[in-house]
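Lab channel / #folding
Pinned by the channel admin:
"Please post every new chain as: sequence first, then the structure tokens as a reply. Keep commentary short and put observations after the output so the thread stays searchable."

First post following the new format, from NK:
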Amino acid sequence: MLAVLAVLVLPFLVAAAWFAWQVYEPGGDGAPVSVTVQQGWGAKEIGDELANKDVVGSSLAFQLWYRISGGSSQAGTYELHEHMGAKAATDVLGRAPSSAAASAGHTVLALPPGLRLEQIADRVGRLPGHDRAAFLALAQSGQVRSKYQGDQPSVEGFTWPDTYFVEGMSDQQILQLIVSEFDKHGDAVGLANTAATGLTPQQTVVAASLVQAEAGNAADAPKVAAVITNRLKQGTPLQIDATLCFAKGGCPPVPTNADKQLDSPYNTYRVTGLPPTPIMTVTEQSLRAALAPANVPYLFYVTGKDGVTYFATTLAEHEANIKAHGVSGE
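Reply from TO:
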């Protein structure tokens, strides 16, 4: 009987020991890590990011502890350490996002999602000892490359949005760091396996950048990706205003009818297919949406005055949505 009880109880003891190890990881503080919590993230997204950066050993254990302990966090960047364990990480995330690194005199490069390469160069150029033009020329030269960018000459769209400590780094080291981070996240979401969509990895990142620009929330992202995929399959121009913004060098002002006549490979009103490069940096959410678009027949969408995006399959449905809710649409 004792043997039977031992067999029954042992798995629970092992599981409890594993969970305790993950919560109170005994490895001590490792290397400093900067983690950015995006608006709308819950326990899963935070846990995945912490595990990806080795702050915790298990995303699942973190999620369990975060929920059991009533964890909460604000959107922003937090300074943590590798091998903190779930409890210590939850404690830090419960405080206000930290600006201690900047106040301590560290050189910090903050790159939020949705930046063009020129905007990244602007930020690098403001760092002590760096020059905007030199960094941009390097990023466009092909000397540093992502393994996913294919024949694309520059790393436009193939750098990862995050907050980086770049004290003493050269332009090349900074660029290699933010491109390597992109490749790491690309590996994590399975960017090498794009056969199901019929796109190359480079084209998938281009599509993800359009999703990044157009999707208002996580629920809309796979639907916007579906509109892009369906239009590509039909050979219909994508007609996405965000690509005009890229062609113009930025918005505002919002694109006009005259802008829709621009002679540019990024003018998706005149050119069929995807733009030649991504138009901005992306998040994992956008990458995952581009890799797995929703299984819906939508070809149109419009964002209404209420901030809600309405999707449609036919032009008549789309025009009805515009009339009922919207001011502009795709």
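NK: The mean pLDDT is 86.
TO: also worth noting, Residues 108-189 form one domain.
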